[in-house]
Amino acid sequence: MKNKSKIIVRQIGLLLLYSMAISGALWLSYELRFDFNPEPEVMVHFGLILACMIGLKLVLLLVFGQFGSLLSYFGVQDLARIFLALLSASGIALVVWFFKAVSYAPPRAVILTDLMLSFLVLCAIRMGFRLLREGYFDGDGDSDGDDGGQYRQIGIIGAGDVGASLVKDLLVRRGLRMKPVAFFDDDRGKWKTSIHGVPVVGAPEIIPEFLRKAKLDEAIIAMPSASGKRLNEIVQLLTRVGIKSEIVPSYEQLVTGKVSVSRVRPVEVEDLLGREEVSLDSAAIRKFIEGRVVMVTGAGGSIGSELSRQIARYNPSRLLMLDQAEPSLFVIEQEMIEAGMGALVQPLVADVLDQPRMSYLFKRFKPEVIFHAAAHKHVYLMERQPAEAIHNNSIGTRLLAQMAATHGVTAFVMISTDKAINPTSIMGASKRLAEVHLQALQANNHTATKFIAVRFGNVLGSSGSVIPIFKKQIAAGGPVTVTHADVTRYFMTIPEASGLVMQASVLGKGGEIFVLDMGQPVKIVDLARQMIELSGFKVGEDIEIKFTGLKPGEKLYEELQHLDEHHLPTEHPRIMRFVPGNDARESSAKAITEIEGALYKVSNNELKALLQKVVSEYTPFFD
Predict the structure, then answer these.
(1) What is the pLDDT of residues 260-286, one digit of tens each?
(2) pTM reported for the whole predicted model
(3) Known catalytic residues?
(4) Which residues neighbour 574 within 8 Å (Cβ) at sequence distance 6 or greater?
(5) Going by C-beta distance under 8 Å and a sequence separation of 6 or more, which residues neighbour residue 465?
(6) Domains of the chain (ranges plus CATH)?
């Protein structure tokens, strides 16, 4: 009831304000037409004309939706609607004048002048309320002091659509206390121009020269499509001159409306390692997933949760999210519910090694496609307990894949790793053995199930990867620990890896090992140095980098293929297919008879030696 009263009061106020503006515009139109000295006989019918014009214009403004909009929110659409409403009113008045329908119709000049004045006055009123709301009359807009109540001087790097939207947003949201003072852009054609009153002064490389003549408190990078290499160059430049850098959200976040362009954030190392956007055959992926029951094991993990998000967009009939870690499964379930997918997803707490439980789930839910992301993945942790790595990664995969074939699953896609290539760790060797089991199952397969493995390197920001560890070490004041000065790793983003896994599942015919294009390897020491600098510290002065030596099972660098594998292209430029040079059935059978029975009966070294006999390319580390 209270809200209804407020609306009525607002509408009455708006009615009176518009009526006063229309009256003033019509009166001034008469004054201008007759040189501010209208004859009495001219004005004899002014009151009647005024009443008619006010009524007509108010009705048309109502028709064009100008009584339902808030006064202080005024944009191009409102401007156009006000003009159309007033133009319609003036058009009706001209028709009355032309046909002489009434003897007291206003002169043509008055009608046309009234149109222009009414439009200007109403727009001025709306714009005034908007400026009042946005704080343009606070009196401190030009302040450039250093205290918290004054404006920070902001440089915008990137004078494209995103940069322009950012400046517009900052000018509107004056409560952010950020004043854009200059654009910097690589495009020479934009130099010496201005956007929303902010000059484009040159390329980012002139920032040191610009600082000699002006002040910058902060720089915001508004280049969501820029390469990681270019972002790296800009961030290093800003770091050298002591300017704090932030970045706008990604294109995906902006387009989906998750965040606004002014929701800037600190530059992360993930931005500097950014890769080109992956092009996916969405139609083929949708055809593969839509209407099917899809199971994701390890759904609470980094890859499993992202796979679940992406799969849900392709409209499966049911998404089974399976994980033995109940807390992480709860997190992704809540995210899906908040995204409006609660009716689609089915969280399942289960261990893939629990055969009775898994058999029940297959009979109950009848999965048609399985993405197997559940695995033990931490190299050094698994190196000290090889039985668990083999039990979960190798035997768990074999048992789940056999169950998939028994229940007529269409496709079984295992998430593998580049550490399975010529492995030196038990984790890598256990994943390689899992690949062998899948290839053997494919060779012996008499069902329609196709078995596929997809390899890729480290994913940025996943649990246990170097980036979260480095962040924690930097927050603690260092040192940042790196195993070796020359160690390199391949990195991918989690969404990129997950998207390409789904693409590979479409390409697979069965028995293939797909390898994702992982770009160029990154030196871990360079990664550590970048993260320290992005945090506002200096390497060696504020935070040290300490070399600890390679741990057992670790490599200096990752490889791309086994010696007995042949690399073949696929229909997708970012996905390669490897065809093994030997039959996997003998190795798989040998592993089942010689390793699985001895799993918890022999020492770690003996177990590694048994695994080496099956995975001949494995070079184990013996205690």
Answers:
(1) 545 677 777 767 766 566 677 888 999
(2) 0.69
(3) 419
(4) 278, 500, 516, 517
(5) 458, 459
(6) 2-133 (no CATH), 152-267 (3.40.50.720), 282-459+490-518+559-614 (3.40.50.720)
